[in-house]
Amino acid sequence: MKNKIRIGCGAGFSGDRIEPAIVLAENGELDYLVLECLAERTIALANKRKMTDSTKGYDPLLERRIETLLPHLVKNNICLITNMGAANPIEGAKKVIEIAQKQGLKVKVAAVSGDELKIGNYELGINDIEIFGEEDEALKLIKNELNDEKSLIPNSPLLISMNAYLGIEGILEALQADAQIIITGRIADPSLFLAPMIHEFGWKTDDYNLMGKGTVIGHLMECAGHITGGYFADPIKKPVQNMENLGHPFADVFADGSAIISKVEGTGGIINPQTAKEQLLYEVINPNEYYTPDVIADFTTVKLEEIAQNQVRVTGGGGKEKPSTYKVSVGYKAFWQGEGEISYAGPAAYERAKLAGETIEKRLKSQFGEIQVDLIGINSTFGNWGFDFAQPPTSEVRLRVAAKAQTQADAALVGEEVEALYTNGPAGGGGVRKYVNEVIGIVSVLVDRSKIKPIVAYFES
Asked: How many angstroms from the chain centroid is the CA of residue 236?
C-alpha cells in the first residue's frame, strides 16, 4: 500500500476551462486526475439529449477534453476519473475508445452506470420514494405519474430523468480492474476523490473516521478553481493575481487522511486558508452532518494550516455511518419560458425602458400568469428592494421581459411583443434579442440504497 498519492482536479463543472487540466496532466506529477462535470440540471439536460439520440447524453465537452488530455494521461500513467458520462456513460466510454484508437493509444476504459433509475430491472414504485424536504407542487405532479404497479419511470410526458447519487463502489471495482479511464454517471462529487484513496491506502469502507477525512479532501477539491482563488477573487477586498492563467488544484493525500493542497508552480491564482475555508463551507448546510453516499461527514474538526506559499495542510474531520438511502435527482418538464430584451440609451433611458416594460406587461398580463420585468443593472438582481435606486443611471438600460408558458408557441409571443417595441415605442429602443427555452425543473427524493446497484462495463482500445 502507498503512503501518499497525488490527485488533481481539472474541472469543477461541465463548462469549465480545458487548459488547467492539461497543465495538471503535463506538469502536475499526478497519480489521478478528476474532472467533476455534473450538476442536477446538467444531468437532466443530458437525459433530454439522450432521448433525442440514444448515442448522446454524455458531457458535450467530453470529446474535446479527452482528445487533448489522453496523450498526457497515457504518457504520464495518470488515471482519469470523471462523471462526464452524465446520462450515458456507456456511449461516453465508447467515444473515449474511438479517440484512443484514432490517436494510436492503448487504454482500458470503465463505464460506471446504474444511477439512472429507468434502466435495469429496478422494481420500484411510489411507496419506495421518500420525500426529501417539503413536498411541492412539482413533486405532487411526479407522484401522480407513478403508482405501485408501475416501474419507477413510466412512459411519462412529464418526467425526463431520475438519477441516484451513487458513491465509491463502482469506481473501486473499476480501479481494482486496472482501468485507466473511468467514466461515470451521477456519482457524488467527493466520491470521485475518495475512491482512489480507499483503493491506494487500503482503507476499510466502514472506517467512517477515514471516510469522513477523505470526503473533506474531496469536497475541498471538487470545484477546481474555487479553491485556487477563482470564486474567491474580489479586486477590492480579496485581490488575486494572474487570473487569466488560473491554475487548478492538486492534493497530496496521505494514508492517515491528511492532505496538502497546492497548484502547479507558475500558474495564476492563490491557495490559502481563506480560499480553503470558502470552499469548505460551500453548499454545506450542517457542518456536523454532511450527507454523502459513503459517509455522514463531520467538518467541525477540520483544521486548515498555511505551510508555504500556495500550500494548505488539511487535517481533521470525521464521520459516522453512511445513510440508508440515496438522494435521487428528478428532472421534469416544468414550463416553457419566453424572453425578450431591448436596450435604451441616452437621455431618459431609464424612464423609457421603464415605460416599455410597463407597456409589455399590460399587453401580456391576460395571457400569462407570471411575468418578470427586469431593468438590467438596476433591479434585475435584487428587485426593487435591497438598494437605493432613487437615482438610477440614465445613460443606458437594458430591458428584459420573461414569462412562463405551457407551450412553445405561447412562449414565443413574449419576444415578439418586445421586438414590436422597435416601432410601437417608446422611442429609441435597439438591440432586440428573443429567446424561447424549455425549462427543466429539479426536485429531490430519497430511495432505499439496497434497491440500487452500480453497473461496471469495460472497453479496451
From this structure: 29
What integer pLDDT is reported at residue 161 of this predicted model? 84
- Judged by phi (left if over 0) then psi (alpha if -120 to 50, else beta), residue 431 lies in left
Residue 211 shares a structural domain with residue 359: no
The verdict on 355 and 259 lying in the same domain is: no
444, HSE (Cβ side, Cα atoms, 13 Å): 12
The one-letter amino acid at 18:
I
Residue 321 φ then ψ, to 5°: -50, 140
- Asked whether residue 317 falls in the same domain as residue 377, the answer is no
Task: Report in angstroms the alpha-carbon separations of 422 from 257, 343, 398, 401, 435.
Answer: 63, 10, 14, 15, 17
Whether 410 and 429 map to the same domain: the answer is: yes
Beta-strand relationship, 396-405 and 371-376: antiparallel
The 3-state DSSP class for residue 171 equals helix
Verify that 270 and 399 share a domain, yes or no.
no
Note if the pTM is more than 0.70. Answer: yes
Q: State mean pLDDT over 383-393.
A: 53
SS (H, E, C) 244-304: HHECCEEEEEECCCCEEEEECCCCECCCCHHHHHHHHCCCCCCCCCEECCCCEEECCCCEE
Residue type for position 321: E
Given this model, what pLDDT does residue 443 score?
Answer: 80
Q: pLDDT tens digits, residue range 79-107?
A: 999 999 999 999 999 999 999 999 999 99
204 lies in a domain?
A: yes
Give which of 266, 153, 171, 278 is closest to 223, Cα–Cα.
Answer: 278
User: Residue 38 pLDDT > 90, yes or no?
Assistant: yes
Query: Do 383 and 420 lie in a common domain?
Result: yes
What is the tally of structural domains in the chain?
2
Q: What is the pLDDT of residue 133?
A: 56
Q: Confidence band (pLDDT; 50, 70, 90) for 157?
A: low
Task: Tell whether 103 and 251 lie within a shared domain.
Answer: yes
Burial environment of residue 103 by CB neighbours within 10 A (0 to 12, 13 to 18, 19 or more):
middle
Structural domain including 281 reads 4-118+164-323
Evaluate if residue 258 carries a pLDDT over 50: yes
Do 243 and 297 lie in one domain? The reply is: yes
